[in-house]
């Protein structure tokens, strides 16, 4: 997600469950993939080691998808906010995100979790 304006697909960064719902509703009828990842710390570091590990694969695959695929980068919160069972992304009935990183195709059962997101070939199989 390093260089949004250079990427061919529609990219949206999401920072709340409300923003997620609104964006998904606005993209109805088109393929939407949501990548749930950690919100960066104030100093720009990532508190989630698995999210750090998955970033290269996500950047490579997402940089090569077609224009008709919509990609959402969803920040689930800082560490303390994510770790609570009441986190909005954990409790949202349509999501039930239990670990990060997680990549889903919105509206389907297709889902990659944890270290699967760091494997470029597996990410490609889901998206391409």
Write a short abstract of this structure.
By secondary structure, the chain is of the alpha/beta class.
Walk me through the topology:
Layout: E1 10-14, H1 17-26, E2 32-37, H2 49-62, E3 70-75, H3 79-83, H4 88-91, E4 102-105, E5 111-113, H5 120-127
Parallel strand pairs: 1-3, 2-3
Antiparallel strand pairs: 2-4, 4-5
Helix pairs in contact: 2-5
Task: Kindly describe this structure.
Helices cover 32% and strands 19% of the residues. It has 5 helices and 5 strands. The protein has a 5-stranded mixed β-sheet, with helices on both faces. Helix 2 links the parallel strand 2 (32-37) and strand 3 (70-75). Helix 2 (49-62) crosses helix 5 (120-127). The longest helix has 14 residues, at 49-62. The radius of gyration is 13 Å and the shape is globular.
Keywords:
alpha/beta; 5 strands; 128 residues; disordered N terminus; five-stranded mixed sheet; 32% helix
Low-confidence stretches: 1-8
Structural class: alpha/beta
What oligomeric state best describes the polypeptide chains here? Answer: single chain
Spatial strand arrangement across the major sheet: 1-3-2-4-5
What is the string of helix and strand elements? Answer: EHEHEHHEEH
Radius of gyration: 13 Å
């Amino acid at each position: 997600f390093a260089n949004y304006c250079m990427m061919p697909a529609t990219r949206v960064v999401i920072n709340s469950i409300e923003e997620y719902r609104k964006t998904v509703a606005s993209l109805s009828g088109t393929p939407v993939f949501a990548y749930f990842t950690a919100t960066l710390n104030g100093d720009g570091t990532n508190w989630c080691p698995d999210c750090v590990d998955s970033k290269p694969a996500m950047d490579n695959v997402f940089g090569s998808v077609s224009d008709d695929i919509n990609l959402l980068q969803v920040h689930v919160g800082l560490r303390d906010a994510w770790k609570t069972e009441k986190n909005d992304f954990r409790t949202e009935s349509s999501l039930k995100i239990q670990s990060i990183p997680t990549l889903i195709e919105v509206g389907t059962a297709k889902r990659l979790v944890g270290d699967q997101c760091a494997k470029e070939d597996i990410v490609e199989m889901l998206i391409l």
